[in-house]
């Protein structure tokens, strides 16, 4: 009996590595600390009422952002572990098996559990406010989406200490990811972690499309929609087309593993390349899904900090929408080497090159916006200005990769790694940082410290180039990706060592950002204007942080940069726009169901990972029951009375 128990424990928990034991201890200590703090300060009720059950888009946004920054930390530690292993030839720091796990978790976490939620956080913070709306179209669904993402991320992260991590790469190609290649539970954690959070992403896509189409303030015609909101729309259109493909692909892979189906195995009539096609039919649009909103952020920031109207608004919108369409015709550039023949490769090579055109248009628009502007280099603008050259180089190397015959040389080399980090860090991460700095005062009512922010910015940037430029060279010199070790005679040491130094510099940059946040909270300088940057769109017309109901009265939009024009009118001595009488505001009620249902999803995922139906089935029942309960709940809304609105506005210094 005891033997069986110890066998089970050593199989169930990951053992044998000091790193893991360290993580075990850290997890137990952190959990204990959180429980202690919440109990000591009697904060459980507050946590439950104000956060876990909230349907307020602003709070959901903040939760997304906190979770994604934690994931940035974990993904970053993974990256530094790999860079440490590669700092010298023949190092034994990470075993080959462990290295496989680390690049897999790093890739999955960075894209799906860092970039996606940080992006959704910014959607939630900014879009309803830019539209002059009370909330998103479906606040309940919004909260459910968040919890599905969160629980998916937890499930995936858990595999670090329970059961073992996935190790077949961030896209889990078969046959490696089939039972024969990966008999452990790591792949199943991958499938269910990504699957559950993916369902959440799909619902967010639907939610924001409906919000943007239906909830614009009166007067906000399509040509007056703020550019960030346009970028969100183009990203969400790509989401609702791409994510169902991911769901189906993962479901088929799961059937292969769980029931011994043969969708992707060579025996039994399956085909592994089918998987590769399907996953990239989601995967390529996915990279545009995460970068389009970054383009939107850069556009807002560039206009605000140049104190000029965005140059080429119409072409910007057209470029973004055409990218979200063209994203579907390029997926095969990820495997030109598959052997599908010259004609197929030509089609996908050309379609990929064509995408460079709308991207180039955007770069010129940003430059022309800055041209003769009164530019102020505050942190959001710094990230934007750094992004432009970085993305140009990343884009050019992308075009190099799209030359199909040349790709036979570049494919799966460090040249590729350098390229995609250049667009993912220089485009996506820099963009979200710009957005985070930009909207931070709107979220919390105070700005982040600029001096520490500038340090963080420079360290990140220098680190970036030191880390990734050598990788282009070492890639051309023949170093392949996912390589855990190399020898002295390869001649790759100096480049790799330099790259590792750059990686650690970026880590230090991240620490500066953490310090910056902590410092800014401690020495908080409250922003009482609600518009600390002198910005242009509606979200800056209300107090910071925005009151629960956002706008005391629904704004009437008469211009693209409505708030800027209003400020100009007032400065010119004209009357501000007349505001309608206050009326009670219709609001959605908080609900515990999204949180509870996500726990049921977790149970389902966990049960299916271990093939324990006795856990999975109650989870399914729980999902059905919570859906039913919510369907028959008619007590979902309430009104904020006028006197309460008056009091809130007066407190924020606004006579309504
Ligand atoms: C913070 C600095 C970062 C460093 C130092 C870094 C470093 C690395 C390294 C060393 C690899 C493994 C290369 C290999 O052995 O094949 C890798 C892979 C990868 N990284 Fe990063 N990375 C960073 C940030 C990011 C970000 C921000 C993203 C996405 C938003 C990202 C996405 C990926 C992906 C998708 C892979 C491929 C994983 C795979 O091969 O399955 N990385 N990175
Ligand atoms: Cu692609």
TrEMBL record:
Residues that span the membrane, as ranges: 20-41, 62-82, 102-125, 146-170, 190-213, 225-255, 275-298, 310-332, 344-368, 380-404, 416-440, 452-473, 493-515, 599-629
Domain Cytochrome oxidase subunit I profile residue range list: 40-558
Annotated SUPFAM superfamilies: Cytochrome c oxidase subunit I-like (SSF81442)
Keyword Cell inner membrane in record: no
Keyword Magnesium: no
InterPro entries on file: Cyt_c_oxase-like_su1_dom, Cyt_c_oxase-like_su1_sf, Cyt_C_Oxase_1
Annotated keywords: Copper, Electron transport, Heme, Iron, Membrane, Metal-binding, Respiratory chain, Transmembrane, Transmembrane helix, Transport
One Pfam family of this chain: COX1
Family of the protein in this entry: Belongs to the heme-copper respiratory oxidase family.
Example of a GO MF term: cytochrome bo3 ubiquinol oxidase activity
Any single GO CC term annotated in Swiss-Prot or TrEMBL for this entry: plasma membrane
Protein name, UniProt field: Cytochrome ubiquinol oxidase subunit I
UniProt-listed CDD domains: Ubiquinol_Oxidase_I (cd01662)
GO BP annotation list: aerobic respiration; electron transport coupled proton transport; respiratory electron transport chain
């Amino acid at each position: 009996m005891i033997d069986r128990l110890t066998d089970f424990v050593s199989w169930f928990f990951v053992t044998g590595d000091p790193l893991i034991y360290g993580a075990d201890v850290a997890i137990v200590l952190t959990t204990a600390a959180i429980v202690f703090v919440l109990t000591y300060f009697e904060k459980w009720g507050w946590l439950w009422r104000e956060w876990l059950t909230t349907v307020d888009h602003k709070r959901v946004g903040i939760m997304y952002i906190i979770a994604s920054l934690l994931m940035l930390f974990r993904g970053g530690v993974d990256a530094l572990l790999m860079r440490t292993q590669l700092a010298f030839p023949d190092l034994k720091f990470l075993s080959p098996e462990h290295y496989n796990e680390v690049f897999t978790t790093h890739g999955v976490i960075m894209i799906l559990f860092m970039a996606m939620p940080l992006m959704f956080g910014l959607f939630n913070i900014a879009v309803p406010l830019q539209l002059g709306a009370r909330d998103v179209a479906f606040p309940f669904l919004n909260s459910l989406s968040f919890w599905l993402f969160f629980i998916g991320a937890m499930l995936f992260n858990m595999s670090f200490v329970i059961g073992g991590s996935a190790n077949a790469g961030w896209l889990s190609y078969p046959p490696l990811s089939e039972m024969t290649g990966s008999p452990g539970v790591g792949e199943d954690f991958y499938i269910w972690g990504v699957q559950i959070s993916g369902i959440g992403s799909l619902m967010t896509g639907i939610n924001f499309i409906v919000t943007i189409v239906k909830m614009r303030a009166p007067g906000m015609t399509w040509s007056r929609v703020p550019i960030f909101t346009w970028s969100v729309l183009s990203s969400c259109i790509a989401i609702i087309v791409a994510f169902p493909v991911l769901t189906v692909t993962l479901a088929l892979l799961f059937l292969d593993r769980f029931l011994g189906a043969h969708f992707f195995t060579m025996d039994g009539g399956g085909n592994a390349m089918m998987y590769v096609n399907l996953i990239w039919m989601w995967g390529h649009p996915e990279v545009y899904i995460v970068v389009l909103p970054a383009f939107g952020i850069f556009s807002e920031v560039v206009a605000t900090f140049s104190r000029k109207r965005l140059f080429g608004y119409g072409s910007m919108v057209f470029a973004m929408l055409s990218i979200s369409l063209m994203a579907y015709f390029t997926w095969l550039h990820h495997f030109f080497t598959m052997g599908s023949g010259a004609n197929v490769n030509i089609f996908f090579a050309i379609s990929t090159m064509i995408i460079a055109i709308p991207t180039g248009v955007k770069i010129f628009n940003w430059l022309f916006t800055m041209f003769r502007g009164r530019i102020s280099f505050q942190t959001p603008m710094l990230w934007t200005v750094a992004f432009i050259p970085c993305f140009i180089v990343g884009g050019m190397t992308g075009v190099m990769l799209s030359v199909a015959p040349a790709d036979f040389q570049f494919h799966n080399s460090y040249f590729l790694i350098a390229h995609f980090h250049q667009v993912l860090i220089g485009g996506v991460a820099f963009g979200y940082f710009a957005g985070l700095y930009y909207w931070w005062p709107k979220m919390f009512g105070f700005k982040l410290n600029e001096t520490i922010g500038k340090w963080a910015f420079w360290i990140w940037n220098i680190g970036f180039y030191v880390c990734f430029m050598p990788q282009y060279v070492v890639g051309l010199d023949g170093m392949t990706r996912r390589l855990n070790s190399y020898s002295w005679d390869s001649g790759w040491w100096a480049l790799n060592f330099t790259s590792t130094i750059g990686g650690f510099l970026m880590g230090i940059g991240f620490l500066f950002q953490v310090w910056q946040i902590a410092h800014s909270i401690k020495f908080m300088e409250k922003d009482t204007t609600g518009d600390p940057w002198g910005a242009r769109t509606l979200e800056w017309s209300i107090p910071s942080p925005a009151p629960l109901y956002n706008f005391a009265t629904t704004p009437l939009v008469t211009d693209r940069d409505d708030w800027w024009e209003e400020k100009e009118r007032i400065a010119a001595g004209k009357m501000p726009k007349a505001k309608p009488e206050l009326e009670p505001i219709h609001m959605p009620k908080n609900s515990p169901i999204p949180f509870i249902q996500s726990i049921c999803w977790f149970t389902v995922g966990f049960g299916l990972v271990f093939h324990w139906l006795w856990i999975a089935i109650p989870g399914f029942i729980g999902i059905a029951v919570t859906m039913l309960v919510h369907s028959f709940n008619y007590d979902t809304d309430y009104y904020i009375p006028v006197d309460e609105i008056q009091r809130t506005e007066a407190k924020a210094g606004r006579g309504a």
